[in-house]
Design brief:
By secondary structure, the chain is an alpha/beta fold. The chain has helices spanning about 30-40, 55-60, 85-90, 90-105, 110-115, 120-135, 150-170, 175-190, 190-215, 230-245, 270-285, 305-315; strands spanning about 1-5, 10, 15-20, 45-50, 70-75, 75-80, 140-145, 220-225, 250-255, 290-295, 330-335, 340-345, 355-360, 360-365, 370-375, 385-390, 395-400. It has twelve helices and 17 strands.
């Protein structure tokens, strides 16, 4: 995979990226930490990065962590992203811009610091740390221990949203804005031009990291769930949305599976085991052909390297954590007679929840409350949208000559 360095020169990087996501409380952090530990023991220099504001990575590793990578054992580094530390590191001029404006309006320092943390900044700072780690090419494997599903979707869609926001918020010429901003800074002390320059550079990095996260098979997402109804339903929705955005999911991890052979008949857990058996079958049928990795319940809290190693051993068995466990295209353009068909992978989507529209050079696909804008190939500018259908987990959009 080619990646631009600080000067924009393409450089090669073979860094493998894994992102663990799922409903809150299913054990994403445990699975991410166990995977990182196993990869490090296999000789892969590994960074595990927590993007969840309610950090529990330090608890899982049973070691204090900070806002910069901390070495845990040989070849294993861990980091819990801190928003305010990241703001000072990455958003300095923007932060100063907002602090100055708020103080200028009479807001006290503490309140101004809180107001300066705009929505999306925490997700943005996680992506910037990831971008830096990939660009420096110092790790063989980077694992993102993500926040619950909703926040993960915010994280993964942030680059697309911010690109649109920058274009709409500052539609005039860059030179004109910088000239006006320079004048504002000289007369008021508000660093408007510097803040804009920093914003622009950050958005460019976010767009770069979006391309990396969508680059199959270098980057894979692993869905973590428990054998429970509500958890499975959320995982199905997450899988649909991740495919909509073009992210490659290479496996499903079913965590905390009670081992039937260790629980006697007639025990307190008999009914749970019956339900678990049904839900495991549902997971196999629903997510086929994705590999299903089962992790047994250890019967005790999981923290520290010894217990994490047991989790990794059962999760991967004879596989390597860095293996690409499954790979499938999520978007294709194909010719069909005089027409062209665009295929978008949308498993579990219901036809009534899907809306397809064509605006200029963009195809807009919305599934429930999630929307993606696809930039169409140039030759389709001479074609018009004629309809769409949803079959066997694929959305088929038909274009014919006008």
């Amino acid at each position: 995979m080619l990646f631009p360095d600080d000067n924009g020169t393409p450089v090669s990087t073979d860094t493998r990226i894994l992102l663990f996501t799922g409903k809150g409380g299913v054990g994403k952090t445990t699975c991410a930490a166990a995977t990182a530990l196993q990869a490090a023991r296999d000789g892969k220099k590994t960074l595990v990065l927590s993007s969840d504001p309610a950090h529990s990575l330090a608890d899982a590793l049973d070691q204090d962590l900070g806002p910069e990578p901390t070495e845990i054992v040989d070849d294993l580094y861990a980091q819990e992203v801190d928003l305010y530390y990241s703001m000072k590191k990455y958003w300095g001029n923007m932060r100063e811009l907002m602090l100055t404006v708020f103080r200028w309006q009479g807001v006290d320092q503490i309140a101004a610091e809180e107001l300066a943390a705009l929505p999306g900044m925490n997700e943005g700072s996680v992506l910037l740390w990831l971008e830096q780690a990939v660009r420096e090419n110092d790790y063989d494997l980077i694992i993102v221990d993500s926040a619950p599903t909703g926040e993960t979707l915010t994280l993964l869609t942030l680059p697309q949203v911010t690109q649109w926001w920058l274009a709409k918020a500052f539609p005039f010429q860059k030179f004109a804005f910088k000239s006006v901003g320079f004048g504002v800074r000289k007369t008021t002390g508000i660093p408007l031009d510097k803040g804009y320059e920093e914003l622009e550079a950050i958005f460019e990095k976010l767009e770069t990291i979006r391309d990396i996260l969508a680059h199959r098979p270098t980057t894979s997402i692993r869905l973590v769930m428990n054998p429970e109804k509500m958890v499975i339903q959320e995982a199905r929705r997450a899988y649909t949305y991740l495919q909509l955005y073009g992210y490659g999911v290479d496996s499903v991890v079913v965590n905390r599976v009670l081992p039937e052979e260790e629980i006697p008949d007639g025990s307190l857990f008999s009914n749970y085991l019956t339900s678990q058996r049904d839900y495991l079958q549902q997971i196999e049928q629903s997510f086929h052909p994705l590999p299903i990795l089962q992790v047994p319940h250890l019967g005790e809290e999981v923290f520290g390297t010894e217990r994490l190693a047991r989790i990794a051993e059962s999760m991967y068995e004879d596989r390597a954590p860095t293996d690409v466990l499954y790979d499938e295209a999520t978007f294709e353009v194909r010719e069909e007679g005089d027409a062209y068909i665009i295929d978008v992978r949308l498993p579990f989507a219901d036809e009534e929840d899907v809306d397809v529209r064509h605006f200029g050079d963009q195809l807009v696909v919305q599934v429930a409350n999630q929307r993606r804008n696809y930039i169409l190939p140039n030759f389709l500018s001479y074609y018009a949208l004629q309809g769409s259908s949803l079959r066997d987990g694929w959305l088929h959009v038909r274009f014919e000559e006008e």
